[in-house]
Specification:
heterodimer, A: about 250 residues, alpha/beta, Rossmann fold, eight-stranded mixed beta sheet, 7 helices, globular, disordered C terminus, B: about 450 residues, alpha+beta, 4 domains, five-stranded antiparallel beta sheet, four-stranded antiparallel beta sheet
């Protein structure tokens, strides 16, 4: 691995010695492949310290397509968005497009989400759902859009991504976990799996080094067994420094 | 096109076949037997002119019908608003074109001058100028016009040619007293008006207080999409009418009249209600387009009619200097209308607060147009799963345990809900939180009214 040193517009490959990287002092403006990319996009804290530490600019990126890949619906995915939705719903509208089941207003209320700012778009087909999402993004009045889709074509994703970039509305796309291996223009992709007393997540794609390990997020409102011994299968919350992946430097330098 | 048995206008194809203006019907069918002969319909002509005048009201309230299928507009007060004479001329031409007619546009400081310029025929090897902004150019342009353009002069055309007078400029040079003796007062009046020597007075068309415009389609139309052209024309008239009255529309209806078969069919009504009163044509057209593309016609359509149901006053534009971040409420309302137009009223929902213990009643969602008065009022807040199944799923039993993919383990409960005895939908259930093998949580209940059975009712998301 050759760290690339960028100083004043010059690109200088640093010597191939393995120890060289640790010798180089931490310059301002030197990016190492093991570091997180710094983007100047506006972000909003996820509300979970563990996830924030793993995301570029420490939070959900604004004006970008974010994909959440679910093993199945109803594993705590909405609780993951709870802090940001609670914050947004105080002033702005939150639109749920084609959710898999009926959303429960009482649950939202108990989480502190203002239910009068909640909107549920029930469409007949995927085309209508995508159209509605695009219209909301184009309009720019909504605070956040959450879209559920099972099979999305790549051009639709690209279109959503473009629409998201042109607006300040937050956009989350919920897809099945099987779409993990497909390519996607999304800026951030997170795979979610159920876990006792919380949710287990793995960052599939981010602007930064490849994230290897699985993160466990304890969710306070997720019902769990009364016996602590039964929670043993929950992985220990342990964070290791992200290892540098084998991705090309250009995509990391964004 | 025939008028009183003689050809009035012929298409280019007919002209190439040898059909000329003034021929008799018999002659035409002898020369070109395939020609389609149409009788002139003055009623429809005047209807079309009314429609155009109505649509042009959006540029100025001072519109008047003139002789020989002309419409005069006084735009002196509108020039700045619409961005100058060139932009305004372009707007007028395009809006008439969108109604489906061609227009010859003349512009001049005097109404009669503009009328003459609009009517002057195109000649070969001469650049035709129909627009002037100053009196001097207008005088120069009028002087060059053939005097037969003026209907009053056409009566004396023989005498005028006899004395070698061809153009309006020549007529003007003749001594007034002699001209008055040999012709009539009308000719002199018209000339004076055209050259701006006497003031012109018009009785502008009065604007009707109710709006109802009807249009017959050219053919029987079987696809709702194809009606968009006609609808555009009606909406253009509507916007003209609204602008002239300073009103905004809240509700309007598009009625599709069907062909009468054995029995009369009631017209299909497409009612469009707007959350925010509007008078802008692109927004109205977009709503209509979404609705029309969803409409299925029961029978071919032969005419469409647009009627206004509810009006309010046009609101002045907002006074704030900077646009509000995140869009205005008006923008949001416009978005709602657009979504409703495509996915239907029952597709755009918002939670209504119903105080009930039964989760399916408590979680009632109503169309956003109903505007339920919500919602964060005091009420008991209980913890509930985020997803609710529309219809509970009966669970299998294995080894005396409910089974859904894997055996379910009860982790919390029971919460007993007994309600609904007052409206004959008695429910008696014991709710539990259950966890399956891969640790996702479910909200399941044991039915107590019938034989005991487990149902899956919700998922913790």
């Amino acid at each position: 691995m050759l760290p690339i040193q960028q100083l004043g517009g010059l690109t200088v490959p640093v010597g191939a010695s393995v120890t060289a990287a640790s010798v180089i002092p931490e310059f301002q403006g030197v990016w190492r492949a093991s570091q997180m990319a710094v983007c100047r996009t506006a972000t909003c804290s996820t509300g979970f310290e563990i996830i924030d530490a793993e995301l570029p600019s420490r939070g959900w990126p604004r004006s970008a397509l974010i994909e959440l890949l679910l093993q199945q619906s109803g594993i705590g995915e909405m609780q993951l968005l709870k802090p940001v939705l609670t914050q947004l719903s105080a002033t702005q509208k939150i639109v749920l497009v084609q959710p898999p089941y009926l959303p429960q207003a009482m649950a939202c209320k108990s989480w502190g989400i203002h239910t009068d700012n909640l909107l549920w778009i029930k469409t007949a087909g995927a085309a209508d759902a995508l159209w509605a999402t695009e219209q909301i993004l184009k309009n720019g009045c909504g605070g956040a859009v959450i879209l559920w889709q099972t099979n999305v074509r790549n051009e639709s994703l690209r279109r959503l991504h473009l629409a998201a970039q042109s607006t300040d509305t937050w956009l989350w796309l919920m897809r099945p976990l099987t779409a993990r291996m497909d390519s996607s223009p999304a800026q951030l992709r997170i795979a979610l799996r159920p876990a006792a007393g919380g949710i287990s997540l793995k960052i599939v794609k981010r602007r930064g080094p490849l994230s290897g390990q699985r993160l466990f997020i304890p969710l306070a409102t997720m019902p769990a067994s009364r016996h602590p011994s039964e929670q043993e299968n929950a992985p220990v919350v342990m964070r290791t420094r992200a290892v540098a992946g084998t991705r090309s430097a250009t995509s990391l330098l964004v | 096109m025939l008028h009183q048995g003689r050809v009035l206008v012929a298409s280019r194809e007919a002209f190439l076949c040898g059909v000329r203006c003034g021929m008799r019907a018999g002659g035409v069918s002898a020369i070109a037997p395939t020609t389609v002969l149409l009788e002139r319909d003055t009623d429809r002509e005047s209807q079309a002119l009314d429609a155009i005048a109505m649509a042009l009201l959006q540029f100025t309230p001072e519109v008047v019908h003139a002789r020989q299928c002309c419409i005069l507009l006084d735009v002196s007060a509108s020039l700045t608003l619409f961005g100058g004479p060139f932009a305004l001329c372009h707007l007028v031409t395009t809006s008439v074109k969108r109604i489906g007619f061609t227009v010859k546009l003349g512009a001049a400081p005097t109404a009669t001058g503009a009328w003459l310029l609009a009517r002057c025929p195109r000649e070969k090897s001469r650049v035709l100028r129909r627009r002037s902004l100053t009196m001097t150019t207008l005088t120069r342009l009028l002087d060059r016009l053939a005097c037969t353009v003026l209907p009053e002069a056409l009566v004396h055309a023989e005498w005028l040619t006899g004395i070698g007078v061809d153009t309006l400029g020549d007529v003007k040079k003749l001594p007034r007293a002699g001209l008055l003796r040999r012709t009539d007062q009308q000719l002199l009046n018209q000339l004076d008006r055209a050259y701006g020597q006497t003031p012109e007075l018009f009785e502008w068309i009065s604007i009707p207080l109710t709006f109802s415009a009807r249009m017959e389609t050219f053919d029987r139309i079987e696809h709702a999409d194809a009606l968009m052209f006609g609808a555009t024309r009606l909406v253009l008239q509507l916007t003209g009418w609204l602008t002239a009255l300073h009103k905004a529309v809240c509700t309007f209806e598009l009625l599709l009249e069907h062909e009468r078969g054995r029995c009369a069919i009631a017209p299909t009504v497409i009612e469009i209600g707007l959350a925010e009163p509007a008078w802008h044509e692109p927004h109205l057209l977009r709503l209509l387009q979404e609705r029309l593309s969803r409409t299925e016609l029961s029978a071919p359509v032969i005419a469409i009619r647009l009627e206004v149901r509810k009006l309010t006053d046009m609101l002045p534009p907002t006074t704030s200097l900077f646009p509000e971040p995140g869009g205005t409420p008006a923008d949001w309302n416009r978005l709602m209308e657009l979504l409703i137009a495509r996915v239907g009223k029952d597709g755009v929902l918002t939670p209504a607060c119903v105080h009930d213990y039964r989760p399916e009643v408590c979680n009632t969602w109503v169309p956003v147009t109903d505007q339920p008065k919500n919602s964060n009022e005091a009420g008991e807040i209980v913890e509930r799963p985020f997803w609710i199944l529309a219809k509970p799923i009966a669970l299998l039993m294995r080894d005396e345990r409910p089974f859904y993919g894997s055996p379910l383990k009860l982790v919390r409960g029971p919460e007993r809900i007994e309600a609904g005895w007052w409206d004959h939908q008695t429910t008696a259930r014991d709710y539990f939180v259950a966890q399956d093998a891969n640790a996702s949580c479910y909200w399941i209940y044991l039915e107590r009214t019938r034989e005991p059975c487990w149902y899956l009712h919700g998922l913790y998301a």
